[in-house]
């Protein structure tokens, strides 16, 4: 049976003063070694496995922050649509 690797999941959140929450959630696209498989025996092994961890974390972070910004801007556009006078030219 093939071993599954850990999955990085990151949630970025903006909490508004009124308690509403806007989130961006993403998963990493890298492969992270299991803790018991992390190579501490050699410098090259450690750097390889740490690089895999770091790349997955950075990838997930970037995707989560992008999703958060998009979701926030979606909220901004809802506000702008609801405050535009009806029937008035833009």
Describe it for me?
The protein is α+β, with helices and mostly antiparallel strands. It is 46% helix and 16% strand. The protein contains 1 helix and 2 strands; from the N terminus they run E-E-H. The chain has one helix spanning 43-83, and strands at residues 9-15, 21-27. Strand 1 and strand 2 form a beta hairpin. The longest helix is centred in the last third of the chain and has 41 residues, at 43-83. It is rod-shaped and about 70 Å long.
Q: What is the percentage of strand-forming residues? A: 15-25%
> Which segments are poorly predicted (pLDDT under 50) over 5 or more consecutive residues?
none
Q: Mind telling me the C-alpha Rg? A: 20 Å
Mean pLDDT comes to 88
Number of DSSP helical runs: 1
Helix content: 40-55%
Amino- and carboxy-terminal Cα gap: 62 Å
Describe the sheet with the most strands. 2 strands, antiparallel
Q: In order across it, which strands form the biggest sheet?
A: 1-2
Helix-strand makeup class: alpha+beta
Overall strand count: 2
Report the principal-axis shape: rod-shaped
Q: In sequence order, what are the helices and strands, one letter per element? A: EEH
């Amino acid at each position: 049976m093939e071993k599954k690797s850990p999955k990085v999941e990151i949630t970025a959140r903006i909490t508004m003063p009124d308690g509403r929450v806007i989130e961006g959630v993403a998963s990493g696209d890298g492969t992270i070694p299991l803790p018991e498989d992390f190579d501490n025996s050699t410098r090259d092994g450690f750097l390889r496995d740490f690089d895999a961890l770091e790349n997955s974390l950075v990838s997930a972070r970037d995707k989560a922050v992008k999703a958060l910004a998009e979701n926030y801007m979606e909220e901004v556009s809802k506000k702008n649509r609801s405050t535009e006078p009806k029937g008035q030219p833009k």
